Amino acid sequence: MWMQDKPLLQEELGRTISQLIHAFQTTEAQHLFLQTFWQTMNREWMGIDRLRLDKFYMLMRMVLHESLKALKTRGWDERQSEQLLELLMTEILHPDSQAPSGVKSHFIEIFLEELTKVGAHELTADQNLRLIGPFCTVAARTQDSLVLHTVTRGIFEAIVEQAPLAIEDLMNELEEEEEEDGDTPSREPPEGCPVAGPATPLPPPGTSGPAIDA
Protein backbone atom coordinates (compact mmCIF):
# COMPACT_ATOMS: atom_id res chain seq x y z
CA MET A 1 0.00 0.00 0.00
CA TRP A 2 2.89 2.32 0.77
CA MET A 3 4.42 1.90 -2.70
CA GLN A 4 1.24 1.78 -4.79
CA ASP A 5 0.66 5.16 -6.49
CA LYS A 6 -2.10 4.33 -8.99
CA PRO A 7 -5.56 5.26 -7.58
CA LEU A 8 -7.49 2.31 -9.02
CA LEU A 9 -4.90 -0.17 -7.83
CA GLN A 10 -4.88 1.54 -4.42
CA GLU A 11 -8.63 0.92 -4.15
CA GLU A 12 -8.27 -2.69 -5.24
CA LEU A 13 -5.46 -3.26 -2.76
CA GLY A 14 -7.44 -1.53 -0.02
CA ARG A 15 -10.39 -3.85 -0.64
CA THR A 16 -8.11 -6.89 -0.59
CA ILE A 17 -6.56 -5.89 2.72
CA SER A 18 -9.81 -4.88 4.40
CA GLN A 19 -11.66 -8.01 3.28
CA LEU A 20 -9.06 -10.23 4.92
CA ILE A 21 -11.19 -9.96 8.05
CA HIS A 22 -13.68 -12.36 6.46
CA ALA A 23 -10.97 -14.99 6.01
CA PHE A 24 -10.93 -15.59 9.76
CA GLN A 25 -13.50 -18.03 11.08
CA THR A 26 -13.71 -16.86 14.70
CA THR A 27 -14.55 -13.53 16.25
CA GLU A 28 -11.35 -13.68 18.31
CA ALA A 29 -9.20 -14.01 15.18
CA GLN A 30 -11.07 -11.19 13.45
CA HIS A 31 -10.59 -8.92 16.43
CA LEU A 32 -6.88 -9.77 16.60
CA PHE A 33 -6.61 -8.76 12.92
CA LEU A 34 -8.39 -5.46 13.63
CA GLN A 35 -6.37 -4.77 16.76
CA THR A 36 -3.14 -5.34 14.83
CA PHE A 37 -4.32 -3.11 11.97
CA TRP A 38 -5.20 -0.15 14.21
CA GLN A 39 -2.06 -0.52 16.31
CA THR A 40 -0.02 -0.51 13.11
CA MET A 41 -1.76 2.63 11.85
CA ASN A 42 -1.16 4.34 15.18
CA ARG A 43 2.49 3.38 15.25
CA GLU A 44 3.30 4.35 11.65
CA TRP A 45 1.01 7.36 11.21
CA MET A 46 3.55 10.07 11.96
CA GLY A 47 5.86 8.64 9.29
CA ILE A 48 3.28 8.92 6.50
CA ASP A 49 4.01 11.87 4.23
CA ARG A 50 1.31 14.23 3.03
CA LEU A 51 1.12 12.72 -0.47
CA ARG A 52 0.31 9.28 0.93
CA LEU A 53 -2.29 10.32 3.51
CA ASP A 54 -5.36 9.99 1.29
CA LYS A 55 -4.82 6.33 0.45
CA PHE A 56 -4.38 5.44 4.11
CA TYR A 57 -7.51 7.42 5.01
CA MET A 58 -9.27 5.30 2.38
CA LEU A 59 -7.79 2.11 3.82
CA MET A 60 -9.03 2.96 7.33
CA ARG A 61 -12.50 3.61 5.94
CA MET A 62 -12.51 0.28 4.12
CA VAL A 63 -11.36 -1.65 7.19
CA LEU A 64 -14.04 -0.04 9.33
CA HIS A 65 -16.66 -0.82 6.67
CA GLU A 66 -15.69 -4.48 6.54
CA SER A 67 -15.59 -4.63 10.35
CA LEU A 68 -19.22 -3.53 10.45
CA LYS A 69 -20.13 -5.95 7.67
CA ALA A 70 -18.64 -8.79 9.72
CA LEU A 71 -20.81 -7.67 12.63
CA LYS A 72 -23.82 -7.57 10.34
CA THR A 73 -23.28 -11.20 9.26
CA ARG A 74 -23.69 -12.14 12.93
CA GLY A 75 -27.02 -10.35 13.15
CA TRP A 76 -25.64 -7.35 15.06
CA ASP A 77 -25.26 -9.62 18.08
CA GLU A 78 -25.22 -7.49 21.23
CA ARG A 79 -22.22 -9.14 22.86
CA GLN A 80 -20.14 -9.05 19.68
CA SER A 81 -21.14 -5.43 19.06
CA GLU A 82 -19.87 -4.53 22.51
CA GLN A 83 -16.62 -6.42 21.93
CA LEU A 84 -15.96 -4.65 18.62
CA LEU A 85 -16.75 -1.23 20.08
CA GLU A 86 -14.55 -1.87 23.08
CA LEU A 87 -11.67 -2.81 20.78
CA LEU A 88 -12.12 0.31 18.63
CA MET A 89 -12.44 2.63 21.61
CA THR A 90 -9.42 1.09 23.33
CA GLU A 91 -7.14 1.31 20.30
CA ILE A 92 -8.31 4.69 18.97
CA LEU A 93 -10.19 6.91 21.44
CA HIS A 94 -9.12 5.77 24.90
CA PRO A 95 -6.96 8.42 26.63
CA ASP A 96 -4.18 5.85 27.02
CA SER A 97 -4.22 4.78 23.37
CA GLN A 98 -1.31 5.68 21.11
CA ALA A 99 -3.58 6.97 18.34
CA PRO A 100 -2.46 10.28 16.79
CA SER A 101 -5.01 13.06 16.37
CA GLY A 102 -5.31 12.37 12.63
CA VAL A 103 -6.37 8.76 13.22
CA LYS A 104 -8.82 9.73 15.96
CA SER A 105 -10.45 12.49 13.92
CA HIS A 106 -10.80 10.42 10.77
CA PHE A 107 -12.26 7.45 12.64
CA ILE A 108 -14.89 9.63 14.32
CA GLU A 109 -15.77 11.39 11.05
CA ILE A 110 -16.34 8.17 9.10
CA PHE A 111 -17.96 5.96 11.74
CA LEU A 112 -21.55 7.12 11.27
CA GLU A 113 -21.19 7.21 7.48
CA GLU A 114 -20.00 3.60 7.31
CA LEU A 115 -22.56 2.44 9.87
CA THR A 116 -25.28 3.99 7.70
CA LYS A 117 -23.99 2.27 4.57
CA VAL A 118 -23.91 -1.14 6.24
CA GLY A 119 -26.92 -1.13 8.55
CA ALA A 120 -29.28 1.74 7.78
CA HIS A 121 -32.12 -0.51 6.57
CA GLU A 122 -32.12 -3.01 9.41
CA LEU A 123 -30.72 -1.56 12.64
CA THR A 124 -33.29 -0.84 15.33
CA ALA A 125 -33.28 2.27 17.48
CA ASP A 126 -31.87 0.29 20.42
CA GLN A 127 -29.08 -1.13 18.26
CA ASN A 128 -28.20 2.31 16.93
CA LEU A 129 -28.03 3.70 20.46
CA ARG A 130 -25.79 0.82 21.51
CA LEU A 131 -23.42 1.50 18.62
CA ILE A 132 -23.09 5.24 19.24
CA GLY A 133 -23.18 4.95 23.03
CA PRO A 134 -19.38 4.71 23.41
CA PHE A 135 -19.00 8.06 21.63
CA CYS A 136 -21.29 9.63 24.22
CA THR A 137 -19.06 8.22 26.95
CA VAL A 138 -15.95 9.54 25.22
CA ALA A 139 -17.49 13.01 24.81
CA ALA A 140 -18.47 13.09 28.49
CA ARG A 141 -15.06 12.05 29.81
CA THR A 142 -12.42 13.25 27.36
CA GLN A 143 -10.01 16.02 28.27
CA ASP A 144 -9.04 16.38 24.61
CA SER A 145 -10.85 19.36 23.09
CA LEU A 146 -10.18 18.11 19.54
CA VAL A 147 -11.83 14.75 20.27
CA LEU A 148 -14.81 16.47 21.90
CA HIS A 149 -15.23 18.84 18.95
CA THR A 150 -14.94 16.01 16.40
CA VAL A 151 -17.45 13.77 18.23
CA THR A 152 -19.86 16.71 18.46
CA ARG A 153 -19.55 17.46 14.76
CA GLY A 154 -19.14 13.95 13.37
CA ILE A 155 -21.69 12.12 15.53
CA PHE A 156 -24.16 14.38 17.32
CA GLU A 157 -24.58 17.10 14.68
CA ALA A 158 -24.78 14.48 11.93
CA ILE A 159 -27.66 12.77 13.77
CA VAL A 160 -29.51 16.07 14.20
CA GLU A 161 -29.07 16.91 10.52
CA GLN A 162 -30.51 13.53 9.50
CA ALA A 163 -33.48 13.70 11.90
CA PRO A 164 -35.95 15.29 9.40
CA LEU A 165 -35.16 12.56 6.86
CA ALA A 166 -35.65 9.88 9.49
CA ILE A 167 -39.08 11.27 10.39
CA GLU A 168 -40.06 11.37 6.70
CA ASP A 169 -38.94 7.75 6.28
CA LEU A 170 -41.04 6.79 9.29
CA MET A 171 -44.13 8.47 7.81
CA ASN A 172 -43.57 6.71 4.48
CA GLU A 173 -43.27 3.35 6.23
CA LEU A 174 -46.49 3.97 8.13
CA GLU A 175 -48.28 4.89 4.90
CA GLU A 176 -47.06 1.69 3.24
CA GLU A 177 -48.28 -0.37 6.19
CA GLU A 178 -51.68 1.33 6.04
CA GLU A 179 -51.93 0.66 2.30
CA GLU A 180 -51.07 -3.00 2.84
CA ASP A 181 -53.78 -3.19 5.52
CA GLY A 182 -56.29 -1.56 3.17
CA ASP A 183 -56.60 1.64 5.18
CA THR A 184 -56.56 5.13 3.74
CA PRO A 185 -53.06 6.61 3.93
CA SER A 186 -52.72 9.50 6.32
CA ARG A 187 -50.02 12.11 6.67
CA GLU A 188 -50.94 12.62 10.32
CA PRO A 189 -48.07 11.63 12.62
CA PRO A 190 -48.48 8.62 14.89
CA GLU A 191 -49.87 9.20 18.35
CA GLY A 192 -47.23 10.55 20.69
CA CYS A 193 -44.97 11.84 17.88
CA PRO A 194 -44.15 15.54 18.43
CA VAL A 195 -44.91 17.92 15.57
CA ALA A 196 -42.94 21.09 14.96
CA GLY A 197 -44.89 24.20 13.95
CA PRO A 198 -47.03 27.01 15.32
CA ALA A 199 -49.95 24.67 15.98
CA THR A 200 -47.94 22.70 18.53
CA PRO A 201 -48.89 23.94 22.04
CA LEU A 202 -46.10 24.63 24.45
CA PRO A 203 -46.24 23.02 27.90
CA PRO A 204 -47.30 25.34 30.76
CA PRO A 205 -44.47 26.89 32.78
CA GLY A 206 -43.08 24.53 35.39
CA THR A 207 -44.14 21.39 33.54
CA SER A 208 -42.23 19.16 31.17
CA GLY A 209 -43.20 18.47 27.60
CA PRO A 210 -43.68 15.06 26.00
CA ALA A 211 -40.77 12.69 26.30
CA ILE A 212 -38.88 12.25 23.04
CA ASP A 213 -36.85 9.11 22.50
CA ALA A 214 -33.38 9.61 21.12
Automatic annotation (TrEMBL):
<feature type="compositionally biased region" description="Acidic residues">
    <location>
        <begin position="173"/>
        <end position="183"/>
    </location>
</feature>
<dbReference type="Pfam" id="PF05997">
    <property type="entry name" value="Nop52"/>
</dbReference>
<dbReference type="GO" id="GO:0006364">
    <property type="term" value="P:rRNA processing"/>
</dbReference>
<feature type="region of interest" description="Disordered">
    <location>
        <begin position="173"/>
        <end position="214"/>
    </location>
</feature>
<protein>
    <submittedName>
        <fullName>Ribosomal RNA processing protein 1 homolog A isoform X3</fullName>
    </submittedName>
</protein>
<comment type="similarity">
    <text>Belongs to the RRP1 family.</text>
</comment>
<dbReference type="GO" id="GO:0005634">
    <property type="term" value="C:nucleus"/>
</dbReference>
<dbReference type="GO" id="GO:0030688">
    <property type="term" value="C:preribosome, small subunit precursor"/>
</dbReference>
<dbReference type="InterPro" id="IPR010301">
    <property type="entry name" value="RRP1"/>
</dbReference>
<keyword id="KW-0539">Nucleus</keyword>
